[in-house]
Amino acid sequence: EMRTARLVSYLSVIALALAVLLVIAPGGGRVLVFGGMFVVDSFAIYAKVLVLLASAFSIIIARDYLEGQGIARFEYPVLIVLATLGMLMMISANDLISLYLGLELQSLSLYVIAAFQRDDTRSSEAGLKYFVLGALASGMLLYGSSLVYGFAGSTSFDALAAQFQAAAPAAPSVGLVVGIVFIVAGLAFKIAAVPFHMWAPDVYEGAPTSVTAFFSLAPKVAAFAMVVRVLVGPFGDLMAQWQQIIVFLSIASMLLSAFATINQRNIKRLMAYSSIGHVGYALIGVAVGDANGIRGVLIYLAIYVFMNLGTFACILAMRRGGRMVEGIDDLAGLSRSHPMMALALAIFMFSMSGIPPLAGFFAKFYIFLAAIEAELYALAVIGVLSSVVAAFYYMRIVKVMYFDELAEALDKPLDAGVAAVLGLTGIVILFFFAYPGPLLAGAETAAAALFGG
């Protein structure tokens, strides 16, 4: 069984790697297929490469953990690959119907892997909570879509965009606005923005750790790409209607995350609140709504994936006597027992709190810059202030690792895959400032593709 699982894992990683090559292949230009329901453009390519990398790395860092927990089954990588397929479809959706299909394929796979550790009540509970709230979110999204279809007469993004552009100065009908509100609420569930975040801490804590790592990486990027595509594409001319909703989601997410995390003692719950905070920062770019803002969002997502991947590689390596530990206090004295791992985790923590010259600083920098250029000063100021509060709990982890007494060391040997991912992500975050060109250029092109240029 374990050999099969390992083989399928390797094959899945190879398949995802090949998919990256195939996704990059078409190059520029905007191509519509499946009767205009599926679009391939630079934006889709950028987001898909991120999602595929995140999924592949998630499978690599999960292997050792799953075998240690005795739940290494071949279904696990298969479900991740299916979820990834759904995400690629979401990212390329050019119609409300194809968007929903991609979203459901992704969600159904995720519900299953959240409850993957069947003999653990917390894992079953996580799967159930995720399922119930995910179904609610799907329902809201569908309801909103049906209202939009009813009041605008089309589900195609291109047709909707053309229609709203034609009627530009006139305010849209109330029914349409209600539909958009429901769609945004459904999407906000998927990215766990406040006030639709309530499932995240419980699911993150209850699901197996490797699943939590996956949840915080690929689905976040895919859902974000979808939010951007829906709001900027078909509803781009209705920005006056949705901008205030996004501003509220953004401020609420940043503030809740900053203050709710202060007394967290479980590192997976801490990461859940931290990822709610990152969603808040990235939403600033969506609220700006121009090519600059979207470029900021795309840069933020790419850097976020690497920071989170590295942090979760460290969390997956937290074992004592073969058992997983999740308390922040279990990291005490890590710098003496595992100096390299402590250094890597410190880099990620400094990066998450946005301290220059690490990559996390540039992620926030481009977002705040876009907000200031768009004169959304309040958003930028609140963002900076909540970064300061958030720095407290990231720094506390560093303090625990470097200054607390070593009680009982974590297990020594790290899995080769986890160690490789740690090294790679650490280098990316540390030296991003030396060579940011490719990422900035890629994000620039991807954002421009949404604005037809």
Could you walk me through the main structural features you see in this protein, from its secondary elements to its overall organization?
The longest helix has 32 residues, at 121-152. The strands form 2 sheets. A two-stranded antiparallel ribbon has the order 1-2. A two-stranded antiparallel sheet has the order 3-4. The mean pLDDT is 92. It is globular and about 65 Å long. Helices cover 75% and strands 2% of the residues. β1 and β2 (38-40) form a beta hairpin. With 453 residues, the chain is an all-alpha fold. It has 18 helices and 4 strands.
Which key terms come to mind for this protein?
mainly alpha; 18 helices; 453 residues; two-stranded antiparallel ribbon; globular; single chain
What is the percent of helical residues? over 70%
Number of helices: 18
Helix and strand run: HEEHHHHHHHHHHHEEHHHHHH
Computed CA radius of gyration, to the nearest angstrom:
21 Å
Distance between the termini: 51 Å
Q: Low-confidence segments, ≥5 residues, pLDDT <50?
A: none
The shape is globular
Q: Provide mean pLDDT, rounded.
A: 92
Tell me what portion of residues adopts beta-strand conformation. under 5%
Largest sheet: 2 strands, antiparallel
Strand order of the largest sheet: 1-2
- Write down how many β-strands occur, each being a DSSP E stretch of 2 or more residues: 4
Structural class: mainly alpha
Concise structural overview:
By secondary structure, this protein is mainly α.
